[in-house]
């Protein structure tokens, strides 16, 4: 516990101090890391803690992003004020998706959320009088420092919310639902309520991530929320390790900063990045299915909380059907 | 219950067939739309059968199926650009797809399967999707290429209806490739071994079937079907040859596989053709259904099928508690 607290405070202090040594451009990239951190955190709640996979989190980001864009662009709202609305819209959408998701397990849920991720941008394209269509909507511009500050403040709030949520009764219920539905149900955990709630929370976090994402880009159109975004969130979560709250920063930095680092130092071209990412996902799945969290835990000797007495090398969250 | 279900499915399919035939007799436009829809449907069907092949053997949904199809289509394009004529390039591509699909399973999926379970493999196929689609962009660039077609561009007039030869050829090739595959499974020793490996892996192993080889072979055959779908799709007017060209097609193929029952190749063919025809008619006759809404429509269809009748039209009903 001491090690964990130390790592978290060190990370928090670093994140708070970094913007003062960065250029404004790099600060907005730092804000993008915050975006991925929130989205991955959201995905982690539903996949890592209740064992429901989602490949469609880019779609929830789209909902949040469009909420912010439409409220500021068409209705003249202050952009900070749109964030709680995006959170609520995301939560509502997550509950709506979460209810049918109760019926599906493993591969089927992956299939449906994958299709959801591709369908939502098409819907945004179709109702162009509302969303600006492919031409998109412009948003107010902000300095890199503002974006960095707001982005990481949101991460901090969401992080604390998640921690409070997962440490108590709700977190136990989530994990129980993940590890054994039968045991959870017979101990009085309402699977329907908790799994739907987890989906709502998860989508709400992704929606806020989407809001910050469009603010960083100061622009939104349906292509911003393509399949790639959903896949990159998943890559981040895979690298982070499902079910771990503190691998998330590693995952977010990996997805956002590694491509920039590699392309700007001419190690590989921008076209090569997906090739590398795809290979890394496969390698992680083959070697360390629990992601960087597993590696870090092994390195510093923390107990592995996700792996229970079973000797299986994969988390129960990844068990299908 | 089972018999009752079979009658309902039969009645539903008969109603669809009657609707399409009667409509086509009534209106030349309806007939043309049906045929071009069936051509799209043939593409969804071949990719759908490819998904079913892998799902049936390992319960894994292969998200990379579309990307692999795109890759092989680019291979065909490259061969033709190097000067090969259409059919040699076509069959050479099928061969390359078979070898490539088998190798992909060996190199990327098997190591994951050995340690993981179904969902780690599913995530690995998503990694494969990113990898393969990325490689296409890396090797051939993002610009749109022109894919030649095997069939002449003009139309044949039969009874006042202009049938596009491209559409008819696409239907023919897709259906023929599925039939060849079916014959392979039904009448050859290797096909029997593959079926055995898919349904009863332990029993198959006991009688000397190399189950893991059969799985690799399955990936090879799925890649061949994907290559057929990709080459047909890229030559059709609705899809352009570019790195993400199969993303949308993959969703329709998923819808076909799910509506067909996910375990049934015949179901995927029937459902694929049906979805192709119905979506084309829907998009043309219902004014508020724009092309952008067809993909969400496929998603909604998939959702409804899974909620109401998860075994699809031809699948086996499975019972699961809790």
Structure, described:
The complex is a heterodimer of chains A (321) and B (322). Chain A has helices spanning 2-17, 24-49, 57-75, 79-101, 106-126, 128-131, 144-167, 169-179, 181-186, 191-217, 227-240, 248-264, 272-287, 292-300, and strands at 137-138, 219-220. With 321 residues, chain A is an all-alpha fold. Chain A has one domain (21-318): ABC transporter involved in vitamin B12 uptake, BtuC (Orthogonal Bundle). In chain A, α2 packs parallel to α7 (144-167), α3 (57-75) packs parallel to α5 and α11 packs across α12 (248-264). Chain B has one domain (2-308): Orthogonal Bundle (ABC transporter involved in vitamin B12 uptake, BtuC), CATH 1.10.3470. At the A-B interface, α5, α9, α11 and α13 of A face α4, α5, α10 and α12 of B.
Query: Main β-sheet of chain B, in a few words?
Result: 2 strands, antiparallel
Overall pLDDT metric of chain B: 87
Which descriptor suits the 3D outline of chain A? globular
CATH architecture grouping of chain A: Orthogonal Bundle
SSE order of chain A: HHHHHHEHHHHEHHHH
Architecture of chain B, CATH level 2? Orthogonal Bundle
Cα end-to-end separation of chain A: 34 Å
Rg calculated over all Cα atoms of chain A? 19 Å
- In total, how many beta strands of chain A? 2
Kindly report the spatial arrangement of strands forming the biggest sheet of chain A.
1-2
CATH topology of chain A: ABC transporter involved in vitamin B12 uptake, BtuC
* Poorly predicted runs of chain A: 303-321
* SS element count, helices of chain B: 12
């Amino acid at each position: 516990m001491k090690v964990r607290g130390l790592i978290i405070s060190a990370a928090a202090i670093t994140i708070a101090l970094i913007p003062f040594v960065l250029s404004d451009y790099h600060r907005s990239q730092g804000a993008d890391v915050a975006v991925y951190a929130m989205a991955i955190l959201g995905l982690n709640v539903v996949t890592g803690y209740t064992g429901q996979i989602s490949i469609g989190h880019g779609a929830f980001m789209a909902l949040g992003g469009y909420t912010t864009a439409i409220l500021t662009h068409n209705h003249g709202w202050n952009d900070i004020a749109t964030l709680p609305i995006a959170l609520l819209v995301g939560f509502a959408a997550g509950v709506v998706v979460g209810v049918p998701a109760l019926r599906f397990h493993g591969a089927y849920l992956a299939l449906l959320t994958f299709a959801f991720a591709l369908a939502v941008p098409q819907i945004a394209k179709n109702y162009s009088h509302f969303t600006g269509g492919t031409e998109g909507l412009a948003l107010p511009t902000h300095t890199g420092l503002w974006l960095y500050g707001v982005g990481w403040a949101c991460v901090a709030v969401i992080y604390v919310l998640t921690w409070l949520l997962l440490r108590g009764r709700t977190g136990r219920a989530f994990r129980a639902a993940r590890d054994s539905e039968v045991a959870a149900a017979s101990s009085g955990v309402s699977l329907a309520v908790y799994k739907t709630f987890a989906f709502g929370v998860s989508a709400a976090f992704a929606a806020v991530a989407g809001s910050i994402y469009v603010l960083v880009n100061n622009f939104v159109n349906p292509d911003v929320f393509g399949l790639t975004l959903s896949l990159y969130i998943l890559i981040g979560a895979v690298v982070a390790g499902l079910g771990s709250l503190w691998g998330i920063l590693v995952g977010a930095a990996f997805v956002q900063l590694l491509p920039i680092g590699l392309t700007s130092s001419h190690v590989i071209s921008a076209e090569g990045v997906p090739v590398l990412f795809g290979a890394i996902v496969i390698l992680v799945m083959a070697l360390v299915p629990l992601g960087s969290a597993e590696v870090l835990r092994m390195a510093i000797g923390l107990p592995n909380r996700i792996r229970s007495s079973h000797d299986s090398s994969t988390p129960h969250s990844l068990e299908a059907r | 219950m089972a018999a009752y279900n079979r009658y309902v499915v039969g009645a539903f399919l008969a109603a669809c067939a009657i609707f399409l035939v009667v409509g086509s007799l009534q209106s030349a436009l309806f007939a043309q739309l049906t045929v071009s829809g069936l051509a799209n449907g043939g593409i969804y069907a071949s990719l759908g059968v490819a998904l079913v092949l892998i799902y049936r053997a390992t319960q894994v949904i292969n998200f990379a199926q579309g990307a692999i199809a795109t890759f092989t289509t680019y291979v065909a394009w490259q061969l033709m650009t190097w000067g090969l004529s259409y059919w040699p390039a076509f069959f050479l591509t099928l061969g390359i797809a078979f070898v490539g699909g088998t190798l992909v399973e060996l190199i990327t999926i098997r190591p994951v399967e050995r340690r993981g379970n179904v969902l780690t493999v599913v995530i690995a196929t998503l990694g494969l999707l990113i990898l393969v689609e990325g490689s296409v962009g890396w090797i051939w660039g993002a610009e749109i290429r022109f894919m030649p077609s095997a069939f002449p561009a003009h139309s044949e007039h039969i009874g006042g209806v202009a049938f596009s030869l491209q559409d008819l050829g696409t239907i023919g090739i897709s259906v023929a490739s599925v039939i060849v595959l079916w014959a392979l499974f039904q009448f050859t020793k290797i096909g029997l071994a593959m079926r055995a490996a898919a349904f009863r892996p332990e029993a198959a192993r006991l009688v000397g079937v190399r189950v893991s080889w059969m799985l690799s072979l399955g990936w090879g055959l799925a890649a061949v079907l994907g290559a057929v779908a990709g080459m047909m799709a890229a030559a059709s007017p609705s899809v352009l040859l570019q790195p993400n060209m199969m993303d949308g097609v993959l969703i329709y193929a998923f819808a076909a596989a799910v509506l067909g029952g996910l375990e049934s190749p015949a179901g995927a063919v029937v459902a694929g053709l049906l979805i192709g025809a119905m979506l084309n008619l829907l998009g043309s006759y219902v004014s508020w259904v724009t092309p952008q809404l067809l993909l969400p429509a496929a998603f909604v269809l998939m959702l409804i099928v899974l909620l109401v009748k998860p075994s699809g039209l031809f699948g086996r009903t499975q019972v699961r508690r809790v």
